[in-house]
Amino acid sequence: MLAGVVIDDTGVLNDKLREWEDNDNFHRPHGALGGQTPYERLKQRTRTRM
User: Fold this and answer.
1) Is the pTM for the entire model greater than 0.85?
2) How far apart are CA 40 and CA 22, in angstroms?
3) How many angstroms separate the CA atoms of 22 and 2, rounded?
4) CA dist 33 to 2, 36, 38, Å?
5) How does the average pLDDT of the chain come out, rounded?
6) How far apart, in whole angstroms, are the C-alpha atoms of residue 46 and residue 13?
7) Contact call for residues 40 and 49 (beta carbons, < 8 A)
8) How many helices (H) and strands (E) in the chain?
9) Which of 1, 18, 44, 48 has the most other CB atoms within 10 Å of its CB?
């Protein structure tokens, strides 16, 4: 997402980091989570504990 990009504006950097965090937590499946996103795993874990 940011490979090889130089950002010298902290506002732009913060926006890009938020985009990356959103993608990583809500859209990108993680192998360690059985192909789920962290958000999907969180929903599953909180549902099963209730």
Assistant:
1) no
2) 13
3) 14
4) 24, 5, 7
5) 90
6) 32
7) no
8) 2, 0
9) 44
